[in-house]
Amino acid sequence: MDKSQDTAQFVAPPWVEEGSTFWFPVQSSTVAPQVDWLFHFILGTSTVFFLLIVGLMIWFTVQYRRRPGAPLLESPHHSTALELTWSIIPAMLLIPMFFWGFIGYVEMRTPPEDSGDNEIRVTAKRWAWLFTYPQFDGFASDTLYVEEGKPFKLTMISEDVLHSLFIPAFRVKQDVVPGRYATTWFIPTRPGEYTLFCAEYCGKSHSDMLAKVVVYPAGERAEKLTRVIEIEEKETPPLERGLKLYNRRGCAQCHTTDGTAKVGPSFKGTFGTQQKLADGSTITVDDNYIRESILEPNAKVRGGYRAQMPSFKGQLKDSQIEDLILFIKSLNEDKK
Amino acid sequence: MATATITTESGSGGHSPGRNYLNESSGILSWVFTLDHKRIGLMYLVGVMSAFLLGGTFALALRTELLTPGPTTGMTHDMYNQMFTLHGAVMTFLFIIPGIPAALGNFVLPIMLGAKDVAFPRMNLMSFYLWMGGALFFVLTLFLGGLDTGWTFYTPYSIDTNTSVVSAVLGAFVLGFSSIFTGLNFIVTIHTLRPPGMTWFKMPLFLWSLYATAIIQILATPVLGITLLLLFAERTMGIGIFDPKLGGDPVLFQHFFWFYSHPAVYIMILPGMGIVSELISVFSRKAIFGYRFIAFSSLAIALLGFLVWGHHMFTSGESKMAAIVFSGITFSIAIPSAIKVFNWLATMYKGSISLATPMCFAQSFIVLFSIGGLTGLFLSTLSTDVHLHDTYFVVSHFHYVMVGSTLTAFLGGLFYWWPKITGKMYNDIQGQIAALIIFVGFNLAFFPQFIMGSRGMPRRYYNYLPEFQTYHQLSTYGSYVLGAGLFLALWVLVQSLLRGKPAPMNPWGGNSLEWHTSSPPPLANFEHTPEATDPYDYHANKYDPAVGGYVPIPKAQKTVDPYGGIE
Ligand code: HEM
Ligand SMILES: [Cu+2]
Questions:
Q1: H helices present in B144-245, as ranges
Q2: Distance from C-alpha of B334 to C-alpha of B344, rounded to nearest angstrom
Q3: Ligand 1: which atom is nearest the Cα of residue B475?
Q4: Does the predicted model carry a pTM greater than 0.90?
Q5: Are A169 and A25 in contact, with CB atoms under 8 Å apart?
């Protein structure tokens, strides 16, 4: 878009960040140039009208200031032609604003076909954002990692109240309403780090609900994000990793840690115990049984439960299963 | 007839000091139970100005807190959230919505019609006490743990928070009735009490604007009432309309809320436009240009105002189609507003323009309303709104419209009718200085907010990134200047009460009926039932230095000197 060049000419005041213009932060998504361009178009039109109005007002005030003794001048009290003119001309100018705004909006709200390949799940919760990356073994982070030139689609849910995901550099904003999925998408165009804000008031720490957005240069995301994951894994104690996985990968949706049964049995104090299976036989809950249940959940179903658990084969690495087993074991120690 | 008695009793006769509505009876009870629209208007005036003072104190505290990114004044997150909520709620529900109609409108509407009172004086008093009741609920909210939902009460936060949502909701609910009563009274008064000869198109434009406002008050306010009742039921009984945990829909609340609150924006601005139409005409001594266009544009704004609420929800996930339709209708509302501005300018053309204090406010209005209105275009445009929504750009836009425009119109009207209300003249030069300081302070306070908003500063933030600090500082200093200007204006008015010269009947040369009675008016408004006049005929009076105001030109002399002398 060559229109972006126009807007870059607006000089930024000295105290603002490099790369940004007077009215806007840096442009770093494909929709940004058109938003900025339209903004400046409206600004130009408005400025012309504003100067016209204020100019006429000042001119008349000076020209026709009250002079003692001067007689009142006569001028028409209405003129249909004049009034229609100044109704119709502004109306005509509003049509392109409306039209370009609508075109841009439809684009913002229509994710390209291939954006689903790079889906990121977003959970908004007072007062933090969590980004989950299905393509990276469900790795989850409070930083949004994306890549220059690729479309990313965000599927968002709120766990409590209204939030709104706002990335000024991308000119993207979407409310996240509890009880329904919200989606938005973008193609980043400029590697760097940006801020993501919560724009819908959500209570006490609303103004601290920020997150970092990292845009990697084209082709570097997979490699760099893998390294981030490795480092994070190395730095997190195994037990904590297990707990995180347990929550993120949805184990908690069906299994509790407090002894109450949900869709599946609770894990509280079960490690090492003998349990009856649906077919009447008995097994010991040990490392092997847990591993098998994660990979082939329907091979040995516990008595009283139905075979409903999905397989995590290919989705969890051995080391992750290891962490999960450690976590489940720890639930036993709690009891003692 | 009652009017006749007043004439004989007044002794000195004419408009010189005698009996008027202020000294007709005395004692606190004569005010508490008064059915006189002028006294009720005055009580409203004191009420809304106290509310403004309270809301203004919150505003200065908020702005001071925002001087630096982190904590500045020792105010915590929670205190900040409660303070911006109460600032917004008090300013909106207690000041700006009732401000012009209930305080100034109550005072001048019947006099402009040559009537003795509004159609239903008891209902009028009732509406004042409902306002007081609503105000008390708000004050009660402060003591019952505050309120931190924002004045919009968005669900599900408003169901979840442990602050005192219930008392605030009841307060707003009661205020709604007050507003409906005022609107109803005005509509009936305008329909039934116009004097013989005053056709609809001979009515002063301020009355047209109050009429259009009253339509909105009656039609939109019940929706707010029902919404608040539902919220009340949701909070106390968990009926599951808005709470997603119970299968409700939070966005439904937004629809309900804005279905009232968007038209409410026009409750705030239309009466202001009406005042400005009067001021521009009187202080230019030129009949208002395009009377019918102005009158009809008020109605058009009132009606279109009902169709645009969805433009508050472009990012909430409403369908693309809905967003496009709402955007289109929103643009169409810009046109009647533009028409008014051009008509005001055309009125000034070849006028005899005096920059007396009320005119200074009217001209500030034109500038600030233009900025407020034009920045609305950025928000009606779908793709730019996505970026600007819920940022300081919006905060600035609505302050330009609600404060920059409505507040200046209110002040213009207050200074214009002050001599009529109190019978005292104020120091015009000090008034002009106050108007100038208010104008400068306002722009310094709010213009930087446009820039920080489009640069990405979200609203309702206690903390912010250091890169926004310069803008916040400018804004805070501007708010101090604005505050100083407002206090100066108050001082000018108080001074006039203490040592102002007695006001003549017609200090500005207006020709609507309120300038045909003494200042302050007698209890029944007129000593003799007045005849309808052309409110914009400035050949009907001329300046008389001996009186210090305008006096009617005798009929005989009129034929000799068709233009009448002016000051
Ligand atoms: C002395 C002048 C004023 C100043 C300095 C001021 C300042 C502020 C500030 C700092 C906020 C919070 C913005 C945010 O974080 O979102 C705010 C919000 C608001 N103000 Fe004002 N304000 C002033 C006068 C007024 C007046 C006269 C009105 C209405 C008549 C008004 C109506 C509102 C409303 C409705 C809100 C939104 C509250 C909310 O977000 O819930 N303000 N104002
Ligand atoms: Cu949030």
A1: 157-160, 165-192, 205-237
A2: 16
A3: 5
A4: no
A5: yes
Q: Cβ distance A116 to A84 under 8 Å?
A: no
Q: Which chain B residues in 353-372 lie under 8 Å from chain A, judged by CB atoms? A: 353-355, 363, 366-367, 370-371
Q: Which residues of chain A lie closer than 8 angstroms to B367, CB-CB?
A: 53-54, 57
What's the rounded Cα separation, in Å, for the pair B558 and B542? 11
Select the residue of A100, A182, A207 nearest B461 (Cβ to Cβ). Answer: A207
Q: What are the φ and ψ backbone dihedral angles of B357, each rounded to 5 degrees?
A: -45, -50
**Residue closest to B119 by CA, chosen among B209, B38, B186:** B186
Reduced to 3 states (helix: H, G, I; strand: E, B; else coil), residue A282 is strand
Subunit contact B160:A61, Cβ cutoff 8 A: no
Q: Which positions 88-147 of B are in contact with A (Cβ < 8 Å)?
A: none
Q: Are strands A128-133 and A119-125 parallel, antiparallel or unpaired?
A: antiparallel
Evaluate whether B496 touches B425 at the Cβ level (below 8 Å): yes
Cα separation, B326 vs B380, in Å, equals 8
Test A35 with B334 for CB contact under 8 angstroms. Answer: no
- Residues in a beta bridge with B338: none
* Residue A194, strand partner residues: A213
- What are residue B543's DSSP bridge partners? B550
Cα–Cα dist B301/B282, whole Å: 24
Look up residue A262 and give its two tokens. 């949900």
Q: Digits of tens for pLDDT over chain B (567 positions)? A: 333 333 333 333 344 457 899 988 888 999 999 999 999 999 999 999 999 999 999 999 999 999 999 899 989 999 999 999 999 999 999 999 999 999 999 999 999 999 999 999 999 999 999 999 999 999 999 888 889 999 999 989 999 888 889 999 999 999 999 999 999 999 999 999 998 889 999 999 999 999 999 999 999 999 999 999 999 999 999 888 999 888 889 999 999 999 998 988 888 999 999 999 999 999 999 999 999 989 998 889 888 989 999 999 999 988 889 999 999 999 998 898 888 999 999 999 999 999 999 999 999 999 999 999 999 999 999 999 999 999 999 999 999 999 999 999 999 999 999 999 999 999 999 999 999 999 999 999 999 999 999 999 999 999 999 999 999 999 999 999 999 999 999 999 999 999 999 999 999 999 999 999 999 999 999 988 888 889 999 988 999 999 999 999 886 555 444 444 443
- Residue B139 CB contacts under 8 Å (≥ 6 apart), including other chains: none
Q: How many A from CA of A242 to the centre of ligand 2?
A: 27
CA of B476 to the centre of ligand 1 (A): 12
Is residue A188 helix, strand or coil? strand
Name the residue facing A168 among B289, B456, B538 (closest C-beta).
Answer: B456
Of A49, A64, A98, the CB nearest to B374: A49
Interface test with A, best of B382, B396, B443 (most A CBs within 10 A): B382
* Torsion B184-B186-B189-B192 (CA) sign: negative
The structure tokens listed for B546 are 């001996």
**Residue B416, both tokens:** 């214009």
Residues 6 or more apart in contact with residue B240 via CB below 8 angstroms? B234, B246, B247, B248
For residue A68, CA distances in Å to A65, B541, B543, B550, B566 come to: 10, 15, 10, 14, 6
Three-state DSSP at B519 gives: coil
Please tell me which residue, A46 or A332, carries the higher pLDDT value: A46
Buried b (16+ CB within 10 A) or exposed e, B195-227: beebeeeebbbbbbbbbbbbbbbbbbbebbbeb
> Facing residues of B549 across strands?
B544
Cα–Cα distance for residue pair A72/A55, rounded to 1 Å: 23
Q: Which helix (H) or strand (E) holds A288?
A: helix A287-295
Report which secondary-structure segment, H or E, holds B285: none
CA B275 to CA A166: how far, in whole Å?
A: 40
Identify any residues that bridge with A188 across adjacent strands, giving them in sequence order.
Answer: A29
Indicate if ligand 1 lies below 6 Å from the C-beta of B83: no
